[in-house]
Each structure stands twice: as C-alpha cells, then as structure tokens.
Specification:
By secondary structure, the protein is an alpha/beta fold. It has two domains: 55 residues, no CATH class; 151 residues, Rossmann fold (3-Layer(aba) Sandwich). Helix content is 32%, strand content 22%. It is built from six helices and twelve strands. A five-stranded parallel sheet has the order 5-4-12-10-11, with helices on both faces. A three-stranded antiparallel sheet has the order 1-2-3. Helix 3 packs parallel to helix 4.
Length: 233
C-alpha cells in the first residue's frame, strides 16, 4: 500500500488524508473546498504515485493508537510529526510540515483552544475530551515513538510536563537548545532518530507569548533545517 496525507484548500495543498491502494484498486480521499486547480494538482499527484510509488510510502497510524517503534527502512526514515497546535513551536511545526508535504497530526484541547483563540481548521488536529492543555500534552507524548523539545531556556510549565510525561511513558526525549542550535545538533538529531528507530515524532516547546516574535520564527528556522531533507519534494 502507498499512503500520502494531504488537504486541499482553495489556494494550496496541505497534508490531510489520502490513502492510495494500488493492489486494492481503490482511492479514499478527504478534502475541502475542492477547486479546478486542486483537481489538476491532485491528478499530477496520482500520476506520480503510480509512477514512483516508493517515494510516497509512509507509515499509517491512526490518532489515539499506542505507538510501537519499527525499524527504519533508510538511514533517515520519513517521519510522522505530532504536535498540539499551540502558538510558538507547535504552530511552527504544523506550518513547516505542511509546507514540506510531511505528514502531521496531533491532539489539541476540546474546542481547539490555543492562547490566540481557536486553532485554525486548516491544521489536521483531533480534539481531546478535555479543554485542559495537559491532557493534549499527555496524549501526544503517549501516541508517539519519541518527543523532541525545542528549549528556549530551562524547562518549565508545559515543556517540563512534556519531559516528565516522556519519562512516565518510557519514550525517548531529545531536548535541543533553540538559541544555540547548530550543525552538531542537526547531526545529533538524525543519529537519535536512527538509534531509537523513531517513525512518529512529537515536537514540543514554548508558546509564542514566552518570547513574542522569537519562538515561532526560530522554531521555523530549526525545523526547516531538520525536516527539509525528509520532504518528498
């Protein structure tokens, strides 16, 4: 089976859900605001899926399922990304993943709550049964193979809770200093991914209000550097 996840909006294509089964000869799709432009691009994607199916092979794991690590099929295995939708690092993870056509999902609070209001519907997140941020944090840690935290100082609040929950669920955790990030951190990240056989990665870090104008921008720079080599484009 080949699988790719995307969402089609009026002006751009983003990952959501598209399952291609060449053996079963069926296609299941979810999309919104389908347009003529979207249909053309979708047709090209389907042609590419048939022509180069190996490029589109991704692990499929429904939200809520308990993670079980699997051996990577390449030195730098393709990742499913998980995050919670908060401003700052979470939002940067979603935007970078979607822009690079990397699969992303995650749990968010009931009502899609975030500090800037309601999390936009364009982000493929599933609501928990609670409005408490801690529940979303725990479920994202629980349902991932490992967690990476972008730290902008000592871990506190939600980021400290994330690290504590990783220990509780016996999930590997990698903390990277966002302010001193360099090539050695890039190398450490890929080595960690390979050594721990990580296929589903939870990404966490500070919300934007902790350092307005810095958190999101810096997280985007770091995540683009880390994730761009994994893009199918």
């Amino acid at each position: 089976m080949q699988a790719i996840v995307l969402q089609i909006t009026s002006h751009r294509i983003e990952f959501r859900h598209l399952i291609l089964s060449m053996k079963g000869k069926y296609i299941l799709m979810k999309f919104r605001d389908f347009t003529a432009t979207g249909s053309i691009v979708l047709a090209l994607l389907l042609i590419m899926a048939i022509a180069v199916p190996k490029v589109l092979t991704l692990p499929v794991k429904p939200p809520g399922a308990i993670a079980s690590p699997t051996a990577p099929t390449s030195p730098q295995p393709r990742l499913w990304l998980v995050t919670g939708g908060q401003t700052g690092v979470d939002r940067a993870t979603l935007d970078i993943a979607l822009s690079l056509f990397l699969p992303v999902r995650g749990w968010c609070p009931k009502g899609r709550l975030a500090e800037d209001g309601k999390i936009p519907a364009v982000y493929p997140l599933q609501e928990t049964t609670s409005t408490e941020y801690a529940v979303r944090t725990e479920w994202n840690v629980r349902d991932s193979d490992a967690t990476m935290i972008l730290a902008y100082g000592p871990l506190e609040g939600g980021t400290k809770l994330t690290a504590d929950l990783a220990r509780k669920y016996n999930r590997p955790a990698l903390v990277l200093n966002a302010m001193t990030f360099n090539q050695r951190d890039v190398d450490r990240f890929y080595q960690w991914i390979r050594d721990k056989h990580i296929r589903i990665l939870n990404v966490a870090g500070s919300r934007e209000s902790a350092n307005p104008g810095v958190i999101y921008k810096r997280a985007q720079e770091i995540l683009k550097q880390l994730l761009q080599p994994l893009s199918i484009l």
